[in-house]
Amino acid sequence: MTMAFAIKAAIGDPHAATFVFAGQKTMYGGKRIAASDVIYIFASENEAGQGLLARGVVASAEPLPRRPGVERQTPRVSIAVERTALARRALGRGALKPFVSWSDGRPETELNFKFYRQATNKIVAISDEAAAFLESFF
Description:
Blueprint: E1 4-9, E2 18-27, E3 38-43, E4 51-63, E5 76-86, H1 93-96, H2 107-116, E6 122-126, H3 128-135
Parallel strand pairs: 1-3, 2-6
Antiparallel strand pairs: 1-6, 2-5, 3-4, 4-5
């Protein structure tokens, strides 16, 4: 069963056909990412990006082993993504910032919470509703 994920990361070439993200932090179920899953790519505003950039399919996903002797570690994974579409409309932090009623069930609120409550770059699992919302940008 494929799932939907989103990643916020530094993007070197926004028009690349393939993206490789090495050693990415995972949160909110992001560690379950696997080959053939759909992923929405956000160019991190922390690194001069503009938000939603592309949609792709995960070509490969490899969890990184935990470092010995470190008690609390965020799971990390390296993934390769084949781009399937470029976003036709913008969606970034500014558009999502007003959605702060964490329990309202809106897809905008889910994305704001998972990506911007903690500003670090990461891979997150997203709900079917959030995936359908993101699809409207393609």
